């Protein structure tokens, strides 16, 4: 029930195309759904996050769509660029007693954007 | 820009040896975390630390693991007797506050290789 399932494992998109990565969860106590971007040799970096009372959040070319009833959320990268080539992780979290947030990560999607 | 710093970047150790992975979280951050990522797999939560004590730990974080904040700036992860399966990238993270939407900032990681 603590798992977050992510697909696809890898994705190849042409420059200018739309990249779509999907995640699903089971634990209804999750209330924070961030997406992290990781470049080789670097730690994950927060890209965008959403709370479950919002169905969509957009920041620049990045959009999270959230379907609470289906317990699914997805990341859309519009006008994908070669510089977006990285591994993307969805995550979910719920508050602990001391307000710390333990992140449960998906398995990651390796995105390659071809020029 | 403030960042989480981890040392060393790569540590090779013999099975059964003790290792200490070091992290300097962003100053004025209050919540500290260790995660690990086995090569090609997802990022997994190990432990969270707040107010000088462990908030939560995962099943991975058994008696061989310990964390410490020995002074006001460092946050360490000790593995007492390393096993081959401890080989992974270990990420330290910190956040300024608890609560929803507080971003966890990750370090660049320490690659631990147990031989």
Task: Summarize the structure in short.
With 115 residues, chain A is mainly β. Chain A has no helices and eleven strands.
Break the fold down into its secondary structure elements and pairings.
The complex is a heterodimer of chains A (115) and B (115).
Chain A: E1 4-7, E2 10-14, E3 19-25, E4 33-38, E5 45-50, E6 56-59, E7 62-67, E8 72-77, E9 86-95, E10 101-105, E11 109-114
Parallel strand pairs in A: 2-11
Antiparallel strand pairs in A: 1-3, 3-8, 4-5, 4-9, 6-7, 7-8, 9-10, 9-11
Chain B: E1 5-7, E2 10-13, E3 19-24, E4 31-37, E5 43-50, E6 53-57, E7 65-68, E8 75-79, E9 88-95, E10 105-106, E11 110-114
Mean pLDDT of chain A: 93
Please name the two chains that share the biggest interface, counting residues whose Cβ lies under 8 Å from a Cβ on the partner chain: A-B, 28 and 30 residues
Strands of chain B, count: 11
How much helicity do the residues of chain A have? under 10%
> Strand fraction band of chain B?
over 45%
Task: Indicate the overall shape of chain B.
Answer: globular
Give the helix proportion of chain B (percent range).
Answer: under 10%
Main sheet of chain B, how many strands, which sense, barrel? 7 strands, mixed
Mean pLDDT of chain B: 92
Count of beta strands of chain A? 11
